[in-house]
Write a structure and sequence with these properties.
Blueprint lengths: L1 E6 L2 E4 L4 E9 L6 E7 L6 E6 L6 E3 L7 E6 L4 E6 L8 E8 L11 E4 L3 E6 L1
Length: about 120
């Protein structure tokens, strides 16, 4: 079992930056690929970014490519999402989630453990 706790959300003006953190505990962190998933009001959950177990391979939704960067540090069981050039449409609750490398990372149903979420609000 993996427990995930997000932090770093908040309110920011459009064009600003935020860095989200996700602290993991429990099972071996490096055994899992990690993702950031967001859900805006009235919309379905969207996979924003994924990083593999070693941190060597990353994937991004088209809507955030070039603006967001996912990273992880297995030594301290933490992953991050650096968000730059934020837009109002980035407003959402952001969730950290863990996926076993044998599962399909692109499918939200594959993510086995989820954090409680952190709110990101971008104003004009």
């Amino acid at each position: 079992q993996v427990k995930l706790v997000e932090s770093g959300g908040g309110m920011v003006q459009a064009g600003g930056s935020l860095r989200l953190s996700c602290a993991a505990s429990g099972d071996t962190f490096s055994n899992y690929g990690m993702g950031w998933i967001r859900q805006a009001p009235g919309k379905e959950r969207e996979l924003v970014a994924h990083i593999d177990t070693s941190g060597g391979t990353t994937h991004y939704a088209d809507s955030v490519k070039g603006r967001f960067t996912i990273s992880r540090f297995n030594m301290n069981n933490t992953q991050y999402l650096q968000m730059n050039s934020l837009k109002q449409e980035d407003t959402a609750v952001y969730y950290c989630a863990a996926v076993r490398p044998t599962k399909t990372w692109a499918s939200l149903a594959s993510y086995e453990y989820w954090g409680q979420g952190t709110q990101v609000s971008v104003s004009s």
